[in-house]
Amino acid sequence: MLPAQTSPDPVRLDLRSTGTGTATLVIGGDWILEAPTPGHSGLVKAVSTGTALTAIAFDTTGLSDWDSTFVTAILHLVQHGDDSGIRFDMDGLPQGARRLIDLATAVPERQGARRRSERPGLLTRLGGQVIETGRDTMAFISFMGEATIALGRFLVGRARFRRVDLMAMIEDCGVRALPIVSLISVLIGLILAFVGAIQLRPFGAQIYVADLVSIAMAREMAAIMTGIIMAGRTGAAFAAQLGTMQVNEEIDAFRTLGFDPMEFLVLPRMLALILMMPLLTIYSNVMGILGGAIVGVGMLGLTPTEYYLETALSTTLTDLSLGIIKSVFFGIIVAITGCLKGIQSGRSASAVGDAATSAVVMAIVMIIVFDGIFAVVTNILGI
Amino acid sequence: MPEKTPGKTPQIIVDDLTLAYGDFVIQKNLSFTVDHGDIFIIMGGSGCGKSTVLKSLIGLKPPAAGTVRYARGEFWPAAPATREAMMRGFGVLYQSGALWSSMTLAENVGLPLGEYTDLPPADIRDLAAMKLALVGLSGFEDYYPSEISGGMQKRAGIARAMALDPAILFFDEPSAGLDPLSSKRLDDLILELRDSLDTTIVVVTHELDSIFAIGNNSIFLDAVTKTAIASGNPKDLRDHGSNAEVRDFLNRGRSAQPQEVSMPSDSPTRPGMARP
Question: CA A351, CA A242: separation in Å to the nearest integer?
Fold first, then answer.
């Protein structure tokens, strides 16, 4: 049998006057974490009697058990005493508590160390945001510039990086991305075909589902979806890799040994995406059209030959090249945002997480915005 | 072999250096000279800006004011290409080792060699293996940094720092996170490297054992006054330095009267804190 748990003795507070302006605070019972205590507000209330007190002593002979909650409450009480001019005589406290209080007050609070939690005004915050946005934009533009210079050096054959890195990146951005690109593209093709089928069937025009799917994939969806997949998959990975290298001082080590991180780290990643994005986009087109064909053949009663011929007739090389050209830019966007956020990352675990998040968000936003601009331009030019 | 010229030749001359992050000054008015063959200790309490000072010496953080001069000229105002060339003249051991995690130890050491020499790959590998052997890591050429212990990473970091046979080696907290024995071995290695390679070494540390074991000159940075409050041989500073705060630091506070802040293990009049 376990010994019966004795329930804690409730805390008793009693302020006994011992003269003019002096009193003794008698504390009894168990002042522990597990039991309800009056807290520091209870202590403060106990000494606020209305009569002006200048000195208070403690009597804790009745206090059978205490822990750090008691010490915390006493510290608050002393603080209150400092504010209202009451002097406390610590001699009556348990010796252990006295030592803890001495320890806690041994190092005075460092002036200016406490963080001000007051919220800045709306204008201050707005201004801060504007300045920060400006700074971010500047950083992005200068990063773009440095990346362009690095790319230029690569084109004249003077860039320094390890071929092994480039190959590893190409494998990672290429072959390893195929499964997810396949899945998403087939599904997008299916969805487009379904949407088209519902509209076109009443007119008996279901054959045009093939046109709809192939042109939509070629001009827009293949490039956009691949871009977004790569932003989530590869852009985040870039940011996390470079962020972790920043935390480990690996990027500093490159700099002091005279290696430009731009050439050594950013360039292979950017090249890999520039090379792989068009290929992935072409592949995505094929898979999307396949998805459309599944609906066309399986649900709309078209023959595979019919579907193939309609697709081949409707989709022009212009449509295909539009998508492919866009995909190169999307690749650059993903590489730049991922690497920029990684290199700018702070030196902590959460900073690396933030870097990965903002790399993905920034890449997706930029891909959509860029696609919008592209759509307007091609529309004006009549392409 | 190490020829200590009696009229010491300065390797690094720092004059009136001020470092700041924005408006926040880290250290100001730092002036010191590191002579050839010195093991120069930059010491001070945690957070006083030791590492930041190091960063401005190795080209990672431009100073807000003041100059850093190496044998080849002034460092910061130099054109980036000149500065890079100067940077090749020194090796840096980072606090965490900072080995490139995607490369093996041999590749880590060999990368700068491959970049700045015309040696064929086989020779580079040989050289890298030799540098790794110097720091006691022969046989580990094909290990990745994550596969070896912290102490080994530090030593591999030294091997990489020595890759280009630099004239000056910088160590940022070399013994941080090492057990006393590994830390002692690292100190011995640093002394050995100074003597056998005839290099000048700058160490940022606050490990007292290391400071006395290896340092022959030093500067003590203070976080409150934000400048150097003592300089000279660490042993002299400890035994008869004029600054009490520095003496305290170097004696682990033992020169001051014994403090009673430590908590007693038990006391009869202490009912709480030890409930079953």
Answer: 12
Q: Per-residue pLDDT averaged across A207-230, rounded?
A: 95
Strand residues in A73-228 grouped as ranges (E): 87-89
- A324: phi > 0 → left, psi -120 to 50 → alpha, else beta; which? alpha
* Shortest Cα distance, chain A CAs vs residue B138, angstroms: 23
Domain A12-106 of CATH type 3.10.350.10: no
Kindly report, residue by residue over A86-114, the tens digit of the pLDDT.
Answer: 888 888 888 888 888 888 887 776 666 66
> What pLDDT, on a 0 to 100 scale, did the predictor assign at position B222?
87
* B88 alpha carbon, distance to own chain's centre: 17
Query: Which residues of chain A have a CB within 8 Å of the CB of B165?
Result: none
Q: Is the ipTM of this complex over 0.85?
A: no
Query: Checking phi first, is residue A294 left (phi over 0); if not, alpha (psi -120 to 50) or beta?
Result: alpha
In CATH, what number is assigned to the domain containing residue B232? 3.40.50.300
Q: How many domains does chain B have?
A: 1
Q: What is the CA radius of gyration of chain A?
A: 35
Angle of helix B150-161 versus helix B180-197 axis, rounded to 10:
10
Domain contains B110: no
Confidence label for B260 from pLDDT (cuts 50, 70 and 90):
very low
Cα(A315)–Cα(A324) distance, rounded to whole angstroms? 14
pLDDT in tens, B105-144: 999 999 988 888 888 888 899 889 988 888 888 888 899 9
Question: What is the number of alpha carbons within 13 Å of residue A99 lying toward its C-beta?
Answer: 17
Q: Which residues of B touch A64 (CB under 8 A)?
A: 271
Q: What is the mean pLDDT of chain B?
A: 83
The answer to whether residues B199 and B35 touch, using CB atoms and an 8 Å cutoff, is: no
Which residue from B22, B23, B82, B91 is spatially nearest to B57, judged by alpha carbons? Answer: B91
- The residues near A87 (Cβ < 8 Å, ≥ 6 apart) are A54, A55, A56, A81
Residue B268 lies in a domain: no
Q: Structure tokens of B68?
A: 């850093």
How far lies A27's CA from each of A46, A63, A87, A151, B7, in Å? 10, 6, 17, 76, 74
- Residue written as tokens 């010229």? B5
- Given a contact cutoff of 8 angstroms between Cβ atoms, the answer to whether A273 and A338 are in contact is no
Q: What is the pLDDT of residue B198?
A: 85
Candidates B85, B160, B275; nearest CB to A65: B275
Asked if residue B62 is part of any domain, the answer here is yes
Tokens of A119: 């919220």
Q: Does A4 score more than 60 pLDDT?
A: no
Q: In angstroms, rounded to a whole number, what is the distance separating the alpha carbons of residues A223 and B78?
A: 46
* Residue at A68: amino acid letter: S
Whether residue B68 lies inside any domain: the answer is: yes
Q: How far apart are the two ends of chain A, measured CA to CA in Å?
A: 88
Residue B60 domain boundaries: 10-99+166-251
Radius of gyration of chain B (CA): 21
Å from A274 to nearest chain B CA?
Answer: 22
Interchain CB distance below 8 Å, B87 and A165: no
Both structure tokens of B236: 């002299």
Ranges of each domain in chain A: 12-106, 131-381
CA distance A229 to A382: 29
Closest among A189, A269, A242, A275 to A356, alpha carbons compared: A242
Q: Please tell me if residue A96 touches chain B, with a CB cutoff of 8 Å.
A: yes
